[in-house]
């Protein structure tokens, strides 16, 4: 087994998921790069490599991966879930014309400042405690060529 598979196996085991060969192949394909895929796109990706994998099994494994925190979920438009293979802390830019989703990493100081401001304001106004904040930048138009 090569190193990348070993790492994927470790990720699954740490999450409490039994790494069957199918789950391992599937997680390996999803986690191979940072991407945001809808369930159908995950199915197509897996199907391209393993045409005999059943749709139900793929969807069940996908759900399991999300529940156990192997991948993240992202709902930018109501009712549309994207599965996020980047589990590092990050934010998103969403292009509402092209549908493209890209990761944004904020400078640590700036992120802290935004978080603290929101946290303070919520606590003062509502008495509620802010536990997490995730930023979504919405874009419009087509990117100009560099
Ligand atoms: Zn992301």
Description of the structure:
- The longest helix is centred in the C-terminal third of the chain and has 19 residues, at 108-126.
- 14% of the residues are buried.
- The strands form two sheets. Strands 1-3-2 form a three-stranded antiparallel sheet. A three-stranded mixed sheet has the order 5-4-6, with no helix packed on it.
- It contains five helices and six strands.
- The protein folds into two domains: 3-84, Orthogonal Bundle (Arc Repressor Mutant, subunit A), CATH 1.10.10; 91-139, Dna Ligase, domain 1.
- The chain has 146 residues and is an alpha+beta fold.
- Helix content is 45%, strand content 18%.
- It binds zinc ion.
- Residues 36, 84, 86, 90, 92, 103 line the site of zinc ion.
Give the helix/strand layout.
Layout: H1 3-14, H2 21-31, E1 36-37, H3 39-49, H4 55-67, E2 72-77, E3 80-84, E4 91-95, E5 101-104, H5 108-126, E6 136-139
Parallel strand pairs: 4-6
Antiparallel strand pairs: 1-3, 2-3, 4-5
Bound molecules: zinc ion.
SSE class:
alpha+beta
Strand content: 15-25%
CATH architecture annotation of the largest domain: Orthogonal Bundle
- How many runs of DSSP E, i.e. beta strands? 6
Q: Provide the CATH superfamily of the largest domain.
A: Winged helix-like DNA-binding domain superfamily/Winged helix DNA-binding domain
What overall geometry do the principal axes of the alpha carbons give? globular
Lateral arrangement of strands in the main beta sheet: 1-3-2
Based on CA atoms alone, the radius of gyration comes out at 18 Å
CATH topology of the largest domain: Arc Repressor Mutant, subunit A
Number of helices: 5
Number of separate domains: 2
């Amino acid at each position: 087994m090569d190193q990348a598979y070993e790492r994927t196996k470790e990720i699954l085991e740490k999450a409490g998921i039994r790494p069957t060969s199918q789950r391992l192949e599937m997680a390996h394909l999803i986690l191979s790069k940072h991407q945001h895929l809808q369930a159908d796109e995950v199915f197509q990706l897996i199907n391209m490599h393993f045409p005999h994998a059943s749709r139900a099994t793929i969807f069940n494994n996908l759900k399991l991966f999300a529940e156990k925190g192997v991948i993240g979920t992202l709902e930018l438009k109501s009712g549309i879930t994207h599965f996020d293979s980047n589990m590092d802390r990050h934010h998103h830019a969403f292009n509402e014309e092209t549908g493209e989703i890209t990761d944004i990493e904020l400078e640590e100081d700036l992120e802290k400042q935004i978080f603290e401001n929101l946290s303070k304001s919520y606590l003062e106004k509502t008495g509620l405690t802010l536990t997490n904040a995730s930023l979504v930048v919405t874009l419009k138009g087509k990117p100009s060529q560099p």
